[in-house]
Design a protein that fits this description.
Bound molecules: adenosine-5'-diphosphate, zinc ion
Strand order of the largest sheet: 2-3-1-4-8
Number of helices: 9
Shape: globular
Structural class: alpha/beta
Radius of gyration: 18 Å
Distance between the termini: 28 Å
Length: about 220
C-alpha cells in the first residue's frame, strides 16, 4: 500500500504524472480539481458552491475541501493505495490530512512561474473526453478538434491571465508553507518538470525508489516472453 501526495504549481503536470503512476502502481488517482470540475459540469449542489471561486482562481474553503476529500477517501476503493493531487493546499488542510493518514512520499513538481504562464495559457482541453492538449508541443492534428473523440477543444475557465495570477499568488502564499511542513518530515522529493514527460516520470520513479520490477507494465512484458 502506497500513499502519495503530488504538489506543484499550475501546469507542472500533476494530472499527467499522477495518472502514469496510478496506472502502473494500481493506485487510485484522486484529483480535487477534477472532482470539483465534474460537479460544475453536472450542475450539482457542490458544483454551484465552487464554480465562481474556481473561475476566479481562488481557493475553495477548507471545510468544504476537507469534507470532499474525507468522503472520497472513506470510499476505501484504494486497496493498493492512492495518489492525491491538489490537496493539501493550505496548512490547515495539511494538518487535517496528517491526523488521519500516514504518507509514503510527497512528489513536488517544480516549474518556474515564467514557464507556468507559457504552458497554462497555451493549454486546451477536450470538451468531450477531457484529453489535455497544448498549443506549444502537443497540438491536435485538426486545429481545435480532439484527436481521440473529435470533440471541441476549449480553454479551462480559470486558464485566463487574470485567474492564473490569482492561482499563482495563492500557491506561493498558501501552498508553499505546506511544502515546508512536509519537508520538515522529510517526505518530499523535488523534480524539475522542464524536461519532457518521459524524463520527468523516470526522475520521479528514481527518486521515490520505485524499481521497474513490480510495475504492471513490466509484468505484462515478462508474461509475453
Ligand atoms: P490548478 O492546480 O491548475 O490550479 P486544480 O485543478 O488542482 O488546478 O484546481 C482547480 C481549482 O479548484 C483551484 O484553483 C481551487 O479553486 C480549487 N481547489 C482544488 N483543490 C483545492 C484545495 N485543496 N483547496 C482549495 N481549493 C482547491
Ligand atoms: Zn476528446
Amino acid at each position: 500500500m502506497r500513499k502519495y501526495v503530488i504538489m506543484g504549481v499550475q501546469g507542472s503536470g500533476k494530472g499527467t504524472h499522477s495518472q502514469l503512476l496510478a496506472r502502473d502502481l494500481d493506485l487510485v488517482h484522486i484529483s480535487v480539481g477534477d472532482i470539483f470540475r465534474w460537479n460544475v459540469q453536472r450542475h450539482t449542489k457542490l458544483g454551484a458552491l465552487v464554480r465562481r471561486i474556481m473561475a476566479s482562481g481562488e481557493l475553495v474553503g477548507d471545510d468544504l475541501v476537507e469534507s470532499v476529500v474525507g468522503d472520497r477517501l472513506a470510499q476505501h476503493d484504494w486497496n493498493y493505495g492512492f495518489i492525491i493531487d491538489g490537496f493539501p493546499r493550505t496548512v490547515r488542510q495539511a494538518e487535517f490530512f496528517l491526523e488521519s493518514y500516514d504518507i509514503d512520499g510527497v512528489i513536488h513538481l517544480h516549474l518556474p512561474d515564467s514557464e507556468v504562464r507559457r504552458r497554462v495559457l497555451a493549454r486546451r482541453l477536450c470538451a468531450g473526453c477531457g484529453m489535455d492538449y497544448n498549443l506549444i508541443d502537443n497540438t491536435p492534428t485538426v486545429e481545435g478538434r480532439c484527436d481521440v473523440c473529435g470533440g471541441e477543444l476549449i480553454r479551462r475557465e480559470d486558464d485566463t491571465p487574470h485567474a492564473l495570477e490569482v492561482r499563482l499568488r495563492e500557491y506561493h502564499e498558501k501552498t508553499n508553507p505546506v511544502l515546508d511542513i512536509f519537508r520538515r518530515k522529510e517526505y518530499v522529493i523535488t523534480v524539475d518538470t522542464r524536461p519532457d514527460k518521459e524524463q520527468v516520470q523516470q526522475a520521479i520513479r528514481d527518486k521515490l525508489g520505485i524499481s521497474s520490477t513490480g510495475l504492471k507494465t513490466t509484468k505484462s512484458q515478462d508474461e509475453t516472453r
